[in-house]
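Hello,

Following up on my earlier ticket. Below are the two sequence lines again, exactly as submitted.
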Amino acid sequence: MAQVEARVLKGFRDYLPEADIPRQAMLRKVVAVFESFGFGPLTTPALEYADILLGKYGEEGDQLLYRFADNGGRDVALRYDLTVPLARVVAQHRSLDMPFRRYQVAPVWRAEKPGRGRFREFLQCDVDIVGEASARADAECMMVGLEVLGALGVPGFVMRVNNRKILDGLLDRVGVEGRERRHAVLRVMDKLPKIGRAGVEAELSDEVGLDAEARSLLFEVLGRPVAGSAGVRALDDAVGGSEAGRLGITELAELLDIVEAAGYGDRVEVDLSIARGLDYYTGTIYETFVRDREGFGSVMSGGRYDTLLAMFLRESIPAVGISLGIDRLVSLLVDLGLVGGRAGTADVFAAAFDDEGYGAMVRWAGALRRAGVGVETSLVAGRLGKQFRLAEKKGYRFVVLQGPDERAADKLALKDLQSGEQVTVDLEEVVRRVRSAPDGGHG
Amino acid sequence: MAQVEARVLKGFRDYLPEADIPRQAMLRKVVAVFESFGFGPLTTPALEYADILLGKYGEEGDQLLYRFADNGGRDVALRYDLTVPLARVVAQHRSLDMPFRRYQVAPVWRAEKPGRGRFREFLQCDVDIVGEASARADAECMMVGLEVLGALGVPGFVMRVNNRKILDGLLDRVGVEGRERRHAVLRVMDKLPKIGRAGVEAELSDEVGLDAEARSLLFEVLGRPVAGSAGVRALDDAVGGSEAGRLGITELAELLDIVEAAGYGDRVEVDLSIARGLDYYTGTIYETFVRDREGFGSVMSGGRYDTLLAMFLRESIPAVGISLGIDRLVSLLVDLGLVGGRAGTADVFAAAFDDEGYGAMVRWAGALRRAGVGVETSLVAGRLGKQFRLAEKKGYRFVVLQGPDERAADKLALKDLQSGEQVTVDLEEVVRRVRSAPDGGHG
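Thanks for your patience. The regenerated structure is below:
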């Protein structure tokens, strides 16, 4: 076999430990919040029959699927999101108790043009509730999402909420007809944070053929400040006499009533310009931005999709969910200096004084672990300076070691790389000192 | 879009919450042990350039790759294991500090004929140490693996260890020459637990052309009981004068010295018949079986692969690792009744007495969560019997609720579904009772 150049595909990336340690720590926090709201884990295959995924994301989405014929000639594709596989699962396993709350943390694949912050493989963290039509389910997804951002220490975030039915009412009023044309308008509106009002107006005019009067009416409504559920209830004129529009107003007001009563009102704003690009939304839609970092894009978004299940079943089952863009959040928190890199995962580094003491080191390292202190042991003995430098590079604050004197006295030497202080103490005292250090001894 | 039948590909599967809850809990324990030994997380793409993977697993392995042309016409494949991507990462990122300890928990894909317990997508949990040639690295991987099985509560397991160089010496002595022929013998030997001695003898005779004398000599050595490092050192005659064989004996004896001194000797046995199917092993090889459940196959296996890195680099970098078959372990522990299914992940279920109290329920549920008690709230109010039945089906032991009387008195009702007892107490007492229940209130 000839030698092969080690490289990754464009749009894909490795997370080396220094980058993956804070990322995995964040994922653990996310999952803990999901579970504290009673969401259960679901694992689905990376590969699905292509027809399960096709026609769910719009034509552009179909083009972006990693689709191929497998070894048995089956038409298969890598999943594009976690929502359609969830719908497939619920349709397939009809004995699931409703409402079905699940979370899933898993990569998805989209063959997009790679760019800054845009990758062909990225991790999604989704919570969804299937089988409950009331605004309580929408509120539950919002609240668990807001609690996740709080638990991660994301500063100054705000969730912007809207309802597709209000947009439907507005499109009725503006006179945009036909499913395809309406979706085209929504997809253009969805670009508002990226291309601005002028860009959106140009595309609405050139690509969708919306006249100046319609565009002006649209933007008059989209730009309205709306204060809480009372503000939403006063929106009737915006949707004219549209029945869909009025239903959307009721749904959004009910949702806000719940989250305001639950004390989340300060983190939620109505934004009528939120449209979301995916075709399958039917009601509530949400996006979440971090103040002064809007350029990062939405870090958490989702909505209600009451008709998706009907693509697999004779009946319709209501569903709502929210998806956290964890990789984008990791970049943001690193950018803000709120999470830092270290390359070691244990609490202390155990240096090996000499070959004779190696076996003893393995034993006291085991005793430290049983006492709850993680230990990375050196695999080389002697040349202590080199071992200390490795410990320091990996971000350890404490090095533990045992020279012949300590060994004879059944003690350990504990060196604090931050202060330079070294003490000779027994194992229990090592445990006490490391556990009482801020951040459990991580330098 | 026509309606599509909801189904998964053959050889793939969904883990619904009831099955995924114990699985995820086990994964958390596995990762905690990995990290307590200082292994850091690594995440690599699911897709690699095909030439990165080809030629590493033998011809059969190449055939089992999910390989296709992507949208840009690149020859790509889904990863087949986590070892080759690790080698690619180390070859590509040359600034990594050595020894490099990493863990990775991720699915791999093999287009094998699906069968009982054999899937086309399965999760691997790997720890590896790259850049350290001494037996200490082999011992470290063994010990972290043994600690993982202990932490998971796997009963009566034993790790069987061997060294490829000893097998090399034996093949020298038996007169099997040529890389391909030697690998063929090892792959047949690897089937011993599945097809028995008679099956292996038949294949060695028919497919590799080994004569009766050679086979008999082989089995005489493979079947020898070898007691600890002293027993290994007495094996010199088995490998005749082979230099490779004698080096293997030294390596295996050194490895056993370390694990015996560290107190792991009771969980490790030498088994000269362990061969491992993959081509890339060069030294230590291990497999782990659960007593009385040998039919489940090895639950943890691995070995040293000192030449794999040279397929990407001009230089050779030594490496050793071990891989836990978590899905097989989950089946085993379920089979043994050691892990059970529940469909809820929170600690208590909050029932909603009536619509009026729904907002208050959301608030006291939040207060319970802040006190460390996970709460799944009902999304429907009233019809309490139905809510209680859902809580019971999802495996909750406690239901918390607040009727008008409790609301007026600022108390909560806590019902224990196991004992039937219901008490009216304040929120702090709910927290105290739930947290002091065995298993944190899980029924």
